[in-house]
User: What shape does this take?
Amino acid sequence: MSWTSYTHAHLPYFIEQVPVPTDSEVYIRLADAPRSALTQVHYDPTPRTYHQVTIDGLEPGRSYYFEARSDGVRAVPNLISTSIIDPMTRDGVFTTLTPPPGEYVQTVVVLNDTHVGLGEHLVKGTGETPYSYFVLEDSLKEIAALAPSAVVINGDVTSEGRPHELRVARRLLDAYGKEKQDYFLTRGNHDRPHRGSEDPRANYESGTVLAPELARGTAETSSAKYAADPFYDNVNDFFDLPYQQMWATRKGNLRLIGLDSADANNPAGGTMHDEQLAAFEAELQSDPHLPTICFTHHPLTRQQALTAFGSRPFLLDKRSATRVEELEAAVPGVFAHYSGHTHRGRRSKGHIATNVDFIEAPASGEYPDTYTVVKFYTGGFTQTTHRPDTERVRGRMVPERWSSHGVLPEGTLYRTDHRNFTVVRDLSALA
Ligand SMILES: [Fe+2]
Ligand SMILES: [Fe+2]
Assistant: This one.
């Protein structure tokens, strides 16, 4: 849990508040024993403005009431939407997860929207590390300790696909492991092929020109005009990630499929070319029963489109989205589909692929700066969401809380039980 200490109650938005350093205390009791005494489970006298505490030793499947205190004053929720919809924020009650039945099999970690390159302007000329670099670096260090079978960075790897951002992303990821063995990427809209004219200082022209036939949707692709101002695919120069191509890999009896939903012609929404959809179908049909998770940067379901800022035009286009759901519905093996892009943590159901959990994971390189741990068992899976616990990431949390005039956290946090949950379903084929 985390909170920030301020001198007084205040509006959640618009007027950035100056935090005050205090000590940190957490008290808990069982939620179904309202008369029992609160037990202090954490005390740290270090004066801090942002407090982040992990409490161990709780029983699985129990509800606890908690109070976080700063200099003896109880922290109260401030964001409006989470105070209404999130029981943990609203009632001060959280319920620990129960692992699914069966044997533990493996762990996969999902990051998305790492946006390497963000925050560079804040430290220009200081020699300090931009926050998007160190949030990823610190996340990967914690993730390495979990020894997952795979890490997937599900799009918006970079801030804008600039060569220098890709170089940093490559360096940080190579310090973690090997591409397509330990870590896998999908592209996001920010990693799409760019034209040199989109940002003359980015040096996109140092990259490989995107073949005109791949730049479809652009009227002049076959003309001399395209030759004069083509798309450059810098991403594929730094990573093994051809534009509009899927990849598939197996970790034990778990199949991971990464789809490229980036659209060179669209800075926000996504698409999938017919060739990629056909390849996706062939891969699924080659082993329809194999337990499978799919990854697209852009969310796609009707529910996701109805509830996201920007609605359908911001997500995967309807034609591609419908086809993806149809293909997933046609095979029994697909059980989860991860997306990023909205920067929010939210679970949804498909309206065609009704047997698939569609999960948006929060952003990893911008508020709330989290990574998502998915543990697989023969009887289901659990998802938990974590913020790296290092001093430099902690130091970013107050300014990020107030980014976008303080409104951003409202849209990204949603409910605790959409970021941390257990799904019980038969995954015995994973064994
Ligand atoms: Fe993003
Ligand atoms: Fe995105």
